[in-house]
Design goal:
Elements: H1 2-39, H2 48-53, H3 57-60, H4 62-82
């Protein structure tokens, strides 16, 4: 019984440590996303009413898509040539 309580306390300590570690990361990443949206409000997601009025806004979201596509493609090419 005592060992189970010790393990439970250790797990709660690890969970609290991870929460304290990742909370600032989530906070600052949210600030970064808001700053990017101030510079370019259509970079990540276009508002629905704007897309309905002008469907060409989907093409404006391509830079983010292309950046992620380059990452995936480069990973695939590297893994292909290195044989991993």
């Amino acid at each position: 019984m005592a060992i189970e309580l010790i393990v439970l306390l250790d797990l709660m300590g690890v969970e609290l440590f991870l929460f304290a570690l990742f909370t600032p990361v989530l906070f600052y990443s949210r600030i970064l996303i808001l700053e990017i949206q101030k510079l370019d409000p259509y970079f990540f997601i276009s508002p629905r009413r704007d897309v309905i009025e002008c469907p060409a806004l989907f093409a404006h979201a391509i830079p983010f898509f292309i950046a992620s596509l380059f990452y995936v493609a480069s990973s695939a090419v590297v893994s292909f040539f290195l044989g991993e």
